[in-house]
Amino acid sequence: MAYTDHIRRLLSYTRKAVDDYEMIKDNDKIAVGVSGGKDSLALLCALAALRRFYPKKFELLAIYLDPGFDEAGFADKEYCDAQRQKIKDICAELDVPLYIGETHIAQIIFNVRKEKNPCSLCARMRRGALHEAAKSQGFDKLALGHHFDDAVETFMMNLFNEGRIGCFSPVTYLDRRDITVIRPLIYAPEKDIRYFANKAELPVTESPCPADNDSERSRMKEILRDFGKEYKGLKYRIFGAMQRGNVDGFKEVESMPVSSDDT
Q1: Partners of 100 in the beta sheet?
Q2: Collapsing DSSP states into helix, strand and coil, what is residue 263?
Q3: pLDDT tens, residue by residue, 185-201
Q4: Do 232 and 262 form a contact (C-beta atoms < 8 A)?
Q5: What sign for the dihedral angle of Cα 93, 193, 199, 80?
Q6: pLDDT attached to residue 260
Q7: Which residues are bridge partners to 181 per DSSP?
Q8: What number of CA atoms fall less than 13 Å from residue 177's CA on the CB side?
Q9: Quick one: which H or E segment has residue 182?
C-alpha cells in the first residue's frame, strides 16, 4: 500500500484541524475507532503519518469492534474474517497496535429489537463500546473518522428533522467516561478521502449492514447534492455558518482548506 505517495492533502486537513482545535497534547494516548470503511482507515493513515513529525508526541491504538453481522445473519463468517484480517494487515503495516473486541450490536438492533430506524441506536451503542474498549486499554482519547461532509449533513439533519441548531463537536470531553473524543478529519471533504482511499489502495470493505444505503444520512446526502448543483459551494457556506455561529464548539479560523472544484 503506497499510501505515503498520496496522503499529503489529507494530512494537511488533519494537521490544520488538530492545530485549530488543540486536539493533541504531549504524551496523549489516542485510540482510533476503525471499522474497515474508507473514513476510519484514512484517519488511521493520517494519524500514523502525523505521528512521525508532529511536535507533540502521542501514542496510537486501533480499535476494531466486530458488530456481529455474521451472528445476525447478514454476512457469512468468511466475509467477516476477511474484513478482520485486512484491518490486522494495515495496522501491522502502519505499526499501530490493534485491539479487537466482539459485540452483539447487529443481533440486538435487527433481531431482538427489530428497529425500523436503527442508525441512531447503532451509533450510540458503537460509541459506548468504543469508549469502554479505549478506557480498558488505558487510552483516554478516542479519534473518530467523521469528516467535513458528515458535519454539514448532521447539522442539516438536525435542522430538518428536529428543528434545532446542532452538530457533533470537533472535541468533546465526556466526564462520565473521563474520555475525550476528537474528530481530526472535520476539514476533509468526503471526495478527497475517497480519492486517497482509491489511490492508496486502502483495504476498504463494504458494510453488510442492511440499513447502510437507506438512512436519513443517505437522504440528506442526496438533498445536498441536488442543491449543490445549483448553488456552488453550498456545503462550504453551511460549514462557515456553523463556524461563525460557534455551533457546538466549531469556531472561525483564519483560513479553511477548500477543494478546487468547490470554490
Answers
A1: 64
A2: coil
A3: 999 999 999 999 999 99
A4: yes
A5: positive
A6: 46
A7: 142, 172
A8: 21
A9: strand 179-182
Q: Is the pLDDT of residue 263 over 60?
A: no
Amino acid residing at 174: L
Tell me the C-alpha distance between 39 and 74, whole Å. Answer: 22
Q: How many domains does the chain have?
A: 1
Backbone region of residue 148 per phi and psi (left: phi > 0; alpha: psi in -120 to 50; beta: other values): alpha
Residue range 110-138, pLDDT digits in tens = 888 888 888 888 888 999 999 999 999 99
- Dihedral in degrees, nearest 10, Cα atoms 219, 84, 133, 38: -40
Identity (one letter) of the amino acid at 242? Answer: M
Backbone angles phi, psi at 64, to 5 degrees: -115, 120
Tell me which residue range forms the domain holding 170: 3-262
**Cell 435542522 sits at which residue?**
159
Helix, strand and coil in the chain, % to nearest 5: 50, 10, 40
**Quick one: DSSP state of residue 53?**
T
Structural contact between residues 134 and 64, judged by C-beta atoms closer than 8 angstroms = no
Strand (E) or helix (H) holding 28 = strand 28-33
The C-alpha atoms of residue 110 and residue 118 are separated, in whole angstroms, by: 8
Distance separating alpha carbons of residues 105 and 133, to the nearest angstrom: 15
Q: Which residue has the cell 474528530?
A: 183
What's the CATH code of the domain at 84? Answer: 3.40.50.620
Q: How many Cα atoms within 13 Å fall on the side-chain side of residue 149?
A: 18
